Fold:
Amino acid sequence: MPAEHPRIHSFAEYEETYRRSVENPEQFWAEMAEPFTWRRKWDTVLKADLVGGHNEWYSGAKLNITENCLDRHLAKRGNKLALIWEPNDPKTRQIRYTYRELHQHVCQFANVLLNNGVEKGDRVCLYMPMIPQLAIAVLACARIGAVHSVIFAGFSATAIADRVNDAQATVVLTSDGLNRGPKQIPVKRVVDEALEHCPSVRRVIVVEHIGWPVHMQEGRDVWYHEEVKDASKSCPAEEMDAEDPLFVLYTSGSTGKPKGVVHTTAGYMVWADYTFRNVFQVQENDVYWCTADIGWVTGHSYLLYGPLLSGATTLMFEGIPTYPDAGRFWEVIDKHGVNVFYTAPTAIRSLMATPLDNVLSYSLDSLRVLGTVGEPINEEAWYWYHQHVGKERCPIVDTWWQTETGGIMISALAGISPLKPTHAGQPLPGVQPVLLTQEGKEIEGNDEEGYLAIKFPWPGMIRTTYGDHERARQTYFGPYPGYYFTGDGARRDENGLYRIIGRVDDVINVSGHRFGTAEIENAINQNANVVESAVVGYPHDVKGQGIYAFVICRDGSCNSESDKPHVEASIIETIVAEIGKIAKPDKIQIVSGLPKTRSGKIMRRILRKVAEGETSNLGDITTLLDPGVVDEIIKGKK
Ligand code: 6R9
Structure:
């Protein structure tokens, strides 16, 4: 019988635990790691390097994360539900797997991967709808030591190709199509288009999901159901080093090209489990639901790994919050008796905008804990969530973290810590946040604002960016040597609670999804009509931030007002092809020039103010090469 993991039960215990975790981190994290299944224990708990970014946790240990997600639970929880799948269409069949069944499915697909020549260390890309096979495949990769790289199924063929090529993946898993509310999308076709440019891929495994006809390329493509049919339901887990990569997940930064954030095995495991148990305080018989897609980090850590490591029952939802109507989330909560619910502020805001009856017609009696993630939650949305969903009895944990942090960093512990709307709260044990001045000086005391950085390693931290460590070093450890730099600005209130204000770099957060302004500009500049563009974020009621693009057109391509709609539509088409629909700008303004300094730098500060509608206070514009363009831009504001 596995030892049970300790959990924090009271605020006094939190304070004591936090103190211990900071005073003696190595001893603390050794204790927290103890109850897992290890093939071999570590030699060293931590090798820290916040300058070069070469941090290691539990070096020398051997393990397999799936033995900890699955095998470890079989004796006690073999017949407990591990995964509940709720389909897009509420009238179609749900699927439920016990821990024992999930274990068998994972082993079976692990054997399929092995039969198809996948070896330890190979990269496997997954471009899939939110269906059980995606969860199974992620775990199957981990079972055999292949590195999974899930690509959100809204990305375009070009974006897939970029990621597959960067990771040099040999195998891709996809499906015939996907359901998204009332729509069906031919996923395999998108993959086919991408793979024309991906010479490393030699096998595509296709799940039959919506029954659409697909083209199967001879010698490359095989059907999931055919491969699985005769595969054995047992598969010994590959023995992995603590620091062997577990997955790569691409995320946007302030430069043009998305980076492959690499997480490794042992530290990520300990972190996902520790943060899940303590933040959400999930109880043995709870049903837990995280609405994130597995294509994002939240789906990795809090739909799959965290809950399964803790032996919880996790719900996976294929659909969208507004199908068949805007009461779907609440209907699913009542139907499955969901106790803990974790979603994004953008979803809350979009549902708030629909008639209140959508939520009031459900009991929501089962709910005990609510959570949010991905972006700052505004006060109005917080109170609506608290009142109408949580019926003023459920604590809301506002969890701040990033793809790079692997798991939650700053958050209340449900039912334990004080709550303050719009504040993420206090750091979890092991997390040592600081506020820095722009020059990198630590700001002491409370009631202060600054750049959020972390001054000590934690087990779930990013290890590198795939294939290019220098990029990770420069991005995260370069700006302030000795600190991990988050890219976020934050405020510490008079009681030491953190409030995340937003990005301080050129990253826009649209509905909780990150985009680099340079990434969108690169896409726009692919359009034949475009000479140059500049993209900024602006406040948006539902999405948090909207995308505002200022575009200069080539001579002759946009001569009159009547040309504009056509050019704008063509720019949108280019962005959808280069990145995907999720990066569609909300506003495009065609301009004849951009505000630039004499050295040729675009002054985004000015464009941001214009986009925000704050044109009365543009600050100093005398350093501009041509201050005249500013007037024109203000006049043409959308
Ligand atoms: C988990 C995730 C990370 C960025 C992060 C910050 C923003 C996330 C937040 C939040 C305010 C919260 N962010 N959680 N801002 N309050 N509770 O979202 O990862 O996609 O990498 O985004 O999201 O700006 O830097 P990722």
Summary: The pocket of 6R9 is lined by residues 251, 296-298, 373-376, 398-403, 424, 486-488, 500, 503, 509, 512, 514 (CB under 6 Å).
